[in-house]
Write a structure and sequence with these properties.
The protein is an alpha+beta fold. It is built from 22 helices and 31 strands. α5 (199-210) packs across α6 (236-249).
Length: 773
């Protein structure tokens, strides 16, 4: 196991706890600033017959309002530019904006919204995937990944099982609701402060809507109060609204959604309905696997095709299956456009193969772990994924063996079996589930990052990158990496606000790749400065002067060492012992040596042919496993989360405290998706669970009573930031271990009911299964 690095506190931790951290809506109000909101459709699908704004004249505080006809460019979109900022002739989901209103007073703005009357001819709406499948309303042609001969393999299989697996969506529930403030600058320019994971997307969409150059728009992000993917594309329309008002009125404009409105009008994790078929031997060896993944994309494309791609690329999870056919489709419905969410489709793909594994074990009356181990990726030739990428650096066997011993898995299975025989009131279940999660954007273009490093004479350093700090600690990771280049305290390195003025063409902060992309760029920039400083150090330590002396001492430069705030020569006894880092910087400045540098990094070797379904889409895989135990009340369906033990491959951990925090947070969020968080829609498309009282997220009670996290050292990992691995998303998938443990418990009284257990396994769903017995 990995020895843990010393704890370095995450940037601004104390300020977050004390409430001193500044988020978008905490920015001071300016004297002439106005507030912005919108009137939205209350109908999921219909024709707009009329928009009556006449009563807005009754509100002197209202300074402007806009409809679709006032926009130069009304369409935007993450992949396909198909979504209108304001509905024009037709509405396609409840919560879709129709009219933008700006007012001097927030309370008046709320009243003014109620004064606008929309006349909409309601049409039959398509809400579920099943309804959409009947009309075959697709966003793109079906995608396929195929390996081997599935038809022949099914013919050889001794046993074949098939089924339909559904998993619900999930609300992001970030702490900070969608928000943006737009400031007019120099007449025709705008500075946007937005709660976004994607500053360049905001810049692009604002400029496109207004018909101005991107160079006239600067997007700045200090930090955001959580994103989880919900602010990758979906903050852009609200930033556009604020920008439109600011540009037209020449006044600062602020929009901040209420929590209920945020939940109502923004997209969620994609619900999936997956059809699967699996062929296997009597020993549990999987010979063939066929799965049809069907995603509910909502009313517009957003990132749905990319989410589907990752779901397909994770459909086999950790299992080597020689004959596979994976098909994926995204369907158009009348829900808010579904979007990115932590793990980005992978959980929906992984859940389906894990459901099939559980069915095999139940049919063969074997421990599901036996089936998982029998089919686990291994040494050649059992190391090729369905899309042709080699699964190298596989440490899953070591992780699982360590976890088996650590969690006393076999002994607990016996204890739980005895408990279930003796208890008439409760059931217990246990599971062990492994994961492998590909790190990189599946769109290879996005795997690039930039950084600007400025070193000041006093030894302090400012770093600007394209990464957005949203609570995950990316700023701390990058600061640690830059500090390490110069061997100075992390406190000397300051990460600046993310700004498209300093770092342009940024990729979104997503895919667990931002520390790798932007951190490696920052390291490159810092190393170039260090190399120039090494020339200066040779001159200082040897007493040489003049530019010629600085440029022709390569051998001496190799002996220059930076350590603990000092620089010294480690080879020559006649050189001075050491000089301080700040003295060296002052000397460099006087010698006219550049102390700033911008660098660019792109992930090498990535490609994927979507037409053929083959390629090398990932830089590496983050691996892990979890053992979870639950207890179920047979009369109420209440779940007690007794225990979870996680072992996670993080490569060479640079900050164990950050890594464990991300693992814990992701796992608990995954647990919520699997057990609590249920999106309930009416047949007309209204989200019924859209308040804090009707939508349940995990609280302290859902935290496992026994919860351990261990970092698995992987010295062979060499492609992430300083040999570490992206960890923000992969542990989310391990939340499925709780759902599997629930299935295991229910199988004791209702094997067929356990087979049909839906996701999330709420108390009501558990009672449905128990009542089948």
């Amino acid at each position: 196991m990995k020895s843990e690095t010393p704890k370095i506190m995450k940037e601004n931790s104390y300020a977050h706890v004390s409430g001193e951290s500044v988020f978008t809506d905490d920015r001071p109000l300016l004297p002439n600033e106005v507030f912005v909101d919108f009137v939205a459709s209350s109908v999921a699908y219909g024709n707009i017959k009329g928009v009556d704004t006449s009563k807005l004249q009754q509100f002197p505080s209202v300074i402007a309002f806009y409809t679709a006809k006032d926009l130069q460019q009304n369409l935007f979109g993450g992949v396909i530019c198909d979504q209108p900022l304001l509905a024009d002739k037709q509405v396609t989901f409840i919560g879709q904006p129709v009219v933008i209103i700006a007012a001097k007073d927030r309370n008046v703005l709320r009243e003014a919204k109620q004064a606008v009357k929309l006349e909409i001819e309601e049409l039959p709406a398509v809400i579920s995937i099943e309804e959409a499948m009947k009309s075959n309303s697709l966003y793109a042609s079906p995608a396929t990944i195929e390996r081997g001969d599935v038809v022949a393999a099914f013919e050889k299989a001794e046993h074949v099982s098939s089924g339909v697996f559904t998993c619900n969506g999930q609300e992001h529930y970030y702490f900070e609701a969608q928000a943006a403030i737009a400031y007019p600058v120099d007449g025709e320019c705008l500075e946007i402060h937005a709660s976004t994971q994607n500053p360049s997307e905001v810049q692009h969409d604002v400029a496109s809507m207004l018909g101005i150059a991107q160079s006239q728009v600067v997007c700045v992000v200090k930090r955001i109060g959580g994103g989880f993917g919900g602010k990758e594309t979906q903050n852009a329309p609200f930033a556009q609204m604020a920008a439109l008002v600011a540009y037209k009125t020449k006044r600062p404009a602020r929009i901040v959604l209420s929590r209920d409105n945020d939940i109502l009008c923004t997209g969620k994790r994609h619900p999936f309905t997956n059809h699967y078929k699996i062929g296997f031997t009597s020993e549990g060896q999987i010979l063939a696997y066929e799965v049809d993944l069907n995603a509910n994309g909502g009313a517009y494309a957003d990132l749905s095709t990319a989410v589907l791609a990752r779901a397909m690329l994770h459909s086999e999870n950790t299992y080597s299956i020689e004959n596979v056919r994976i098909t994926g489709r995204v369907f158009r419905t009348n829900l808010a456009p579904n979007t990115a969410f932590r793990a980005f489709g992978a959980p929906q793909g992984v859940a389906t193969i894990e459901q099939a594994i559980e069915e095999i074990a139940c049919f063969l009356k074997k421990d599901p772990l036996e089936i998982r181990l029998r089919n686990l990726y291994g040494t050649p030739p059992r190391h090729i994924t369905p899309y042709g990428q080699t699964f190298s650096n596989n440490v899953l066997p070591g992780i699982i063996n360590h976890l088996l011993e650590r969690a006393n898995y076999q002994e607990r299975r016996v204890e739980i079996a005895n408990f279930n025989k003796s208890s008439s009131t409760h059931l217990r279940g246990l599971s062990l589930m492994p994961i492998k999660f590909g790190i990189s954007f599946t769109n290879a273009t996005l795997n690039q990052g930039s950084a600007l490093v400025n070193v000041h004479q006093d030894g302090s350093i400012q770093v600007s990158t394209g990464a957005v700090e949203m609570g995950q600690g990316v700023n701390t990771r990058i600061a640690e990496a830059v500090a390490d280049v110069f061997s100075i305290p992390v406190a000397c390195v300051k990460l600046m606000s993310t700004s498209t003025e300093k770092i342009h063409n940024t990729s979104p902060t997503a895919a667990s790749a931002s520390a790798d992309l932007n951190g490696n760029a920052a390291i490159l920039a810092a190393k170039r400065i260090r190399e120039r400083l090494a020339h200066c150090a040779v001159a200082m330590l040897s007493g040489a002067t003049g530019e010629s002396d600085l440029l022709h001492q390569e051998r001496a430069i190799q002996n220059i060492t930076f350590a603990e705030g000092f620089v010294f020569d480690c080879s020559s006894s006649h050189f001075q012992n050491k000089i301080s880092f700040s003295d060296l910087l002052h000397y460099a400045w006087k010698s006219r040596v550049g102390l700033g540098e911008q660098a660019y990094y792109k992930t090498p070797g990535l490609w994927f042919d979507r037409e053929k379904g083959i390629g090398n889409p990932f830089q590496y895989y983050t691996q892990g496993a979890a053992v979870s135990e639950v207890q179920i009340d047979r009369f109420t369906g209440q779940i007690d989360f007794l225990s979870t033990d996680i072992v996670m491959d993080v490569g060479e951990s640079q900050n164990a405290q950050l890594d464990k925090g991300q693992i814990a947070g992701a796992f608990i969020q995954g647990l919520g998706w699997c057990t609590l968080e249920e999106l309930v829609y009416s047949h007309k498309g209204r989200l019924l669970s859209c308040t804090t009282g009707t939508y349940k997220i995990p609280g302290i009670r859902e935290f496992p009573q026994h919860f351990t996290i261990e970092l698995f050292g992987n010295p062979h990992q060499s492609s992430g930031l300083k040999n570490s691995k992206g960890i923000g998303e992969p542990p989310f998938v391990l939340g499925l271990s709780v759902w599997i443990a629930i299935k295991n418990a229910l199988a004791n009284v209702s094997p067929e009911g356990a087979r049909t257990l839906k996701l999330p396994a709420t108390g009501e769903e558990i009672m449905r299964v128990l009542n089948l017995n």
